[in-house]
Amino acid sequence: MATTAPPLVNPFREGLSLEGATQPVQLVIFGASGDLTQRKLLPAIYNLCQAKLAPPAFSVIGFARQPMTDDQFRKVLTDSVAASSEVRVRDAAALQQLVECTHYVAGDFHDDAAYATLRDAMQRYDRQYATNGNRIFYTATPASLYGDIAAHLHGAGLVKPGEQPSFVRMIVEKPFGRDLASAKALNSELLTYVGEDQIYRIDHYLGKETVQNILVLRFANGIFEPIWNRRYVDSVQITVAESLGIEGRGSFYEETGVVRDVIQNHALQLMSLVGMEPPVSFDAHDFRDEKVRVVKAIHPVTPADVASVAVRGQYGPGSVAGDRVVGYRQEPGVDPNSITPTYAALRLVIDNWRWAGVPFYIRSGKRMPKRITEIAMQFKEAPHLPFRKAEVETPGGNVLALQIQPDEGVTLHFDAKVPGPSMRIRAVEMDFNYGETFGVSDASPYERLILDCMKGDQTLFDRADGVEAAWAIVDPILTAWASDKDVKFPNYDAGTWGPAVADELLARDGRSWRRL
Ligand code: BG6
What we know:
CATH topology of the largest domain: Dihydrodipicolinate Reductase, domain 2
Helix content: 25-40%
Structural class: alpha/beta
Strand order of the largest sheet: 8-12-13-7-14-16-17-18-15
Largest sheet: 9 strands, mixed
Bound molecules: 6-O-phosphono-beta-D-glucopyranose
Strand content: 15-25%
CATH superfamily of the largest domain: Dihydrodipicolinate Reductase, domain 2
Number of strands: 19
């Protein structure tokens, strides 16, 4: 008798699509003259307008200390669009439309009067562009200003919890705090002025198409999930390698280091997407509940464990892609005796039924030989090989590699028979490449995330408990390293894959880093 299979649970019913309406809105950017605004935000806003994804009733207001007229800020906008490689379609009419609804207000971030001026300007433009009182504030400033900005906005009557019927949202950039205590303090400060449902803590990794594809690969296919666990997975390696150095951000990086800059946020986001349980749906609550749950399940690193689960490095002079580059300590704005790490590797385990005993190795560094972000699921070996050892040329085992960037795609490594009369075996690859398959370039992560905020969709933003859980993982490591200043830096040459201690971290488990 024929039976009808029950419909599979599809968690993608609503989320992860570009459908959904945006409402009229004013977007206010704090730190409008800064690097992030010019390199990322303005081109992303232009792309949204060009693609007609931004609402028809829309305006942008830049706010920063630097005195500028509207026209000067509009020039910043056109220059940044012209310079950006993330702009897909050069459309003079679309740019002109955006230029015409872009304004600038100069003022000190700590000055009440500046926020009164901003409020007056916002009221004026709200009427002019019919944006119905809807406001998004984007903090693209140094992190130390986020709390103050929210307090001043509140003081000027520009933000309040649960504003209705018009909406008020704040997009808060990373780094969100510099340790667990400051992240908690920032959360509680922000939450006095706005509700959690109004705060959009941004991590641009969640806006990357390939990062979202981790979810689709896992939860829209029936074949991966049954083997996505401790019975089949031997270990997981997450690499966030950059060939760039610190790009003139010496004083920022001195205060930050690789753990705060990349591991606490981008790398742990990747780990949570790989490790999380399937959410019931991709609405912001269900999805983030699962994402936070897995971070909370990461085995806490105690001060006594730090030496055995975390290693740090700092690059010295070397050469990257054929160019000689200086060491970290020689970079402008860096203390010549700095012990700020530019590389770190961690061994983490997740204490739950799915992952007990499976190590997750995470590494990130500046001035690596190349830029590559990859998640590799290493599967357990076949329990018995019925072939003679001599016939196995280069056994690779089974690895599912999710390439997040730059060659976006998924590769399955497995062993195959070499053609010929004998049973010779060699590692081969099966490849899916994003660019080749879809033939379109990705939207920039900022574009996607600003659009989601316009739509009121918090799914791809961090929740208060999420950032705090991530800080809780790295906090003991940061504390231990801050108090142990006796570290021999530099310990890797620019253009190499990091310090020897990172290799030892895996060698202790009988494993080695993938050669990328
Ligand atoms: C940022 C860090 O958050 O992410 C930078 O501050 C880093 O130091 C960057 O270079 C990496 O992002 P992406 O998208 O280039 O991998």
